[in-house]
Amino acid sequence: MRTFFKWILGILLSLIVVGLIGYLVFDEEKPKGVSGAEAEALADKMLSATNKAAWDTTRVISWDFDGRHQFKWNKAQDSVDVRWGDKLVKLHTKSVTGTAYVSGKQVTGDEANELIQAAWSHFCNDSFWLAAPYKIRDPGTSRSLVSLENGTNALLVSYDSGGVTPGDSYLWMLDDAGLPTAWKMWVNIIPLGGLKTSWENYKTLPSGAVVAQTHEFPMITLELSDISED
Length: 230
Prior knowledge:
single chain; alpha+beta; 4 helices; 14 strands; globular
């Protein structure tokens, strides 16, 4: 028994050491950018590259989030069908109300409320990975220009108020045309500042909107698949 506890202690200490090393090596302070005309011009370039005008005219879009959740979002009607496993929630995104089903049967009461809140959480997170480039001028955001060590400029977007993640910031790195190639994140739910994730494998929808299907993290990959416009 004593050997077993020593083994558990050894694993815990190893995890703590690995976590500490990761924090010391990868943690970054959020950069200070410069707001103003240059930052807004870079934002315009980014929105043009991703075709924000086309996204605004996209009425219904469906996608699968990494094999975990499936969505059919009617942007025009502020509604979305959220599926995961045997669960389906028909959610109204403005009022965060809806109807919930398990194995095809409608449920009510506390069970329905819990599923509706879960669907809302899934939608907020998973739609952001789809549409974040189009949200850089959402109400409550601010933008600033950051000069990188390689001589290029990046766009720091901070969500100062509103939404579901006030206080979060994202540093967008762009190619020469203004298309996002990666971002670094300073978000409340991740203790590591400056975590870098790619934006790649772009798909152009029939409307002309351009969305990334692949996000590479350190050691893991997040895939958005079956993206289609109805």
